[in-house]
Amino acid sequence: MSLASATPPSRWAKFLDSDVFASFRRSKLAMAALAVTVLFFALAIAAPWISPQNPYDPAQLDLINSNLPPIWSPDGQSPFLVGTDDQGRDVLSAVFYGLRLSLVVGLLGVLVSGTLGAALGLIAGYFGGFVDTLIMRVADVQLTFPAILIALVVDGVAKAAAGGGLDTNATIGLIVVSIGLSFWVQYARTVRSSVLVEKNKDYVQAGRLIGLSSPVIMVRHVLPNVLGPVFVIATINLALAIITEATLSFLGTGLPETMPSLGTLIRTGNRFLFSGEWWIVAFPGLALAGLVLAINLLGDWLRDALNPKLQ
Questions:
Q1: Per residue in 23-48, pLDDT tens?
Q2: What's the CA gap between 149 and 145, in Å, rounded?
Q3: Within a domain: residue 67?
């Protein structure tokens, strides 16, 4: 068989033969972080099927089962493996359902911030001039404020404007937008710096010569070549987005108690911490810490693996 007729390797085969995959196989910490992250995602997706009860279905709750300790304690009862809260809700089931909402809000927040930041960075880097100056000065101003403060301001202003009449979907959407507006600057600055290099390359000049419009060149040709750092930032920002949502909910300005995110569960359990019911806050807190740590470790590995200076 001639070389010309040989079947080209698939993208999956190319990935398995890449330096990134080789770096992943050498890093036991990255493999463990990925395994833990996948486990949390799997638990969140399978929550309705693996949870002993739906902790937010009043028909499945019984106040007789309230404040039960973990099953290994003398007063523990089956099937409440890690105990119950003051409403008789199984804490483990609440953690599984809380993971679902925290991950959804985190992923959507990263999608909003990444899309907004990448778009603004692409426009600023490609066109330059006044547009570049305006976008970057707005980014510089926002960098002077903590991200959580930006999220608090956006969330508070929107709720005040709505008069407190937000339904479930609107509340989630507001938190997502608040997180998105808090973290877009990193994407914009990174994409802009990459575009400043890419727009002077031959393929961009060739596109202009054959009459391609600026939006086509930007989206089809420049953007795919600057997305590598964006994926690294998105991985790390997923952990930050989850923490931001948990912080907002813990402070009482995020999701209400009827919407079981990890932050909401921690806020609820914090009221019982000093009365001896430590498990109500401990296990949601451990789940949040484990999820954020695993995602951060995965992001750190990805950043190092895609850094050409470390190859």
A1: 777 878 888 999 999 999 999 999 88
A2: 7
A3: no
